[in-house]
Design a protein that fits this description.
- With 481 residues, this protein is of the alpha+beta class.
- The chain folds into 4 domains: 90 residues, no CATH class; 92 residues, Nuclear Transport Factor 2, Chain: A; 143 residues, Roll (Nuclear Transport Factor 2, Chain: A); 113 residues, Glucose Permease (Domain IIA) (Distorted Sandwich).
- It binds zinc ion.
- Zinc ion binds next to loops.
Length: 481
């Protein structure tokens, strides 16, 4: 049997328990509340913890309290504390519960199938098979995800087949429940006649349009994190501002931000998922930049400034993520040729294989090796503007002369082909056939809303500004709620 993080709780009654696991990315909280009747006695439990959760012997009361929250324990006078759990942990060999159901929460491991999970839990194969068939009505076992918790309720089997069960008692599946998504619960239960029935229920989620505002000490990302803004919200906002803001240079301590976004919460107020971001603003050195999310009449969703100009420029200044300029535009001593030469582009240092994006919508004009440039791509964006990319290690699949590309589409990967001393992207912006300095010129702007669209955008701006004002008055302090 595989080692798993699991809890077995031979619970007589009256206990709610919650089980917290630390996951690879921060802390994931999995709350499972199991109510079995009402009464006083406590859990008996076995823990087979792998990895980060302490071994049974190290487990003390403090840790027990950290990993198990027993909200009813306080109310029940003699369901005292997690102490009995700790006592019971001294025993590492599984005990056969005298009688009564056993609650077990299993975290799905890599390579598991629903069948293997049930078999490992001690359920007979024919019974596991029947359970899976019934469950398939509402849940495809293929949707099982690594890390997903499955709650099993087991009971000792009626007939004891003591021939080959020395290691593992045969158990009967009483019920199984899991949550395939934040908004859905699936439950399988055994009927009196022994047959299984499965049903799925929707978890009701409520949308809360939430304003968060705060000041920036070191970075916008960190400010959002400390104010409880989900990572995906911060990432999208940073991306939206990246056309206008240089996050390495422009952010100063004391700058501030404000966000309006939708949170979907369950009945307990836990964040189940994030929805749309409606608004984001930055005040950088006293200057305010505000962005409003707007769905255009042709079905796209873009960020616009308060005048109705798209933040998306016709060209990206930096067609690569997270890279630093290692050599700017202008005269320089050429590192290989050894004499002063005009550098007609900008170099971005980045590891080999880093994706390179098309700086704007356009058509591929040249793709292939080009002497000192090494592997090279040139895109024609408009009659006036083009961009070029050099020292590429490889091109994105399927591209050829004449291919249409969209802004942000991966066209190639960083390399050091041609005359290059190290891996970097050599990037050129070409205007009327001449290379120009992309860092200093005003790049052609993107779309501007007009007519009817501009009118409905202005109505949206007024509406959002009112929501921001109302929420700021009711909670003037930075808050995630
Ligand atoms: Zn260069």
């Amino acid at each position: 049997m595989k080692q798993r993080q699991n809890i077995r709780a031979a619970a007589a009654d009256g206990v709610y328990f919650r089980f917290m696991l630390t996951a690879a990315f921060g802390l994931t909280l999995l709350a499972f509340a199991a109510s079995i009747g009402s009464g006083t006695s406590l859990l008996r439990s076995h823990l087979n913890f792998a990895n980060e959760i302490p071994a049974a012997g190290d487990f003390d009361q403090a840790l027990a309290q950290k990993y198990f929250l027993l909200p009813n324990a306080q109310a029940d006078s003699d369901a005292a504390a997690p102490a009995p759990i700790a006592d019971d942990l001294q025993s590492t060999t599984p005990e056969t519960p005298a009688n009564g159901p056993i609650e077990q929460i299993i975290e799905v491991q890599k390579g598991d199938t629903l069948m293997s999970v049930l078999a490992d839990a001690g359920i007979k194969l024919d019974e596991a098979h029947a359970a899976i068939v019934a469950l398939s009505d509402v849940f495809s076992p293929r949707q099982l995800m690594v890390g997903q918790p499955i709650k099993l309720t087991l009971a000792p089997s009626d007939q004891s087949e003591s021939a080959d069960d020395s290691a593992q008692p045969q158990l009967q599946l009483v019920s199984l429940s899991l949550q395939p998504s934040v908004a859905k619960n699936v439950e399988l239960t055994r009927q009196i006649d022994g047959a299984f029935t499965a049903q799925s229920t929707d978890v009701p989620l409520e949308r809360h349009t939430t304003r968060v505002a705060g000041s920036i000490q070191s970075s916008l990302f960190e400010a959002g994190q400390s104010d409880g803004v989900p990572i995906e919200v911060m990432s999208e906002i940073i991306h939206a501002f990246s056309y206008d803001v240089d996050f390495q240079r422009d952010i100063q301590p004391g700058d501030s931000y404000e966000i309006l976004y939708d949170r979907y919460e369950d009945a307990d107020g836990n964040l189940a998922k994030t929805g749309n971001i409606l608004y984001a603003s930055l005040v950088l050195s006293g200057k305010k930049l505000a962005l409003y999310r707007f769905a255009t009449s042709d079905g796209r969703t873009e960020w616009f400034n308060p005048k109705g100009d798209s933040v998306r420029k016709a060209l990206l200044r930096t067609p690569i993520d997270g890279a630093k300029i290692t050599s700017g535009f202008g005269m320089r001593m050429h590192p290989i040729l050894g004499y002063s030469l005009m550098h007609k582009g900008v170099d971005f240092g980045a590891p080999i294989g880093t994706p390179i994006y098309a700086a704007g919508d356009g058509t591929i004009q040249i793709i292939g090796p080009a002497s000192g440039y090494g592997n090279y791509i040139r895109i024609k964006h408009t009659a006036t503007y083009g961009t070029a990319y050099g020292h590429i290690s490889r091109f994105a699949a399927g591209l050829h002369v004449g291919s249409r590309v969209r802004q942000g589409q991966v066209i190639a990967y960083v390399g050091m082909t041609g005359r290059a001393t190290g891996p970097h992207l050599h990037f050129e912006v070409i205007k009327d056939g001449k290379q120009i300095n992309p860092t200093s010129i005003k790049l052609p702007s993107g779309e501007k809303l007009q007519g009817k669209e501009l009118k409905s955008f202005m109505a949206l701006v007024a509406n959002i500004n009112k929501q921001l004002k109302d929420q700021a008055q009711s909670s003037p302090v930075a808050s995630a709620h």
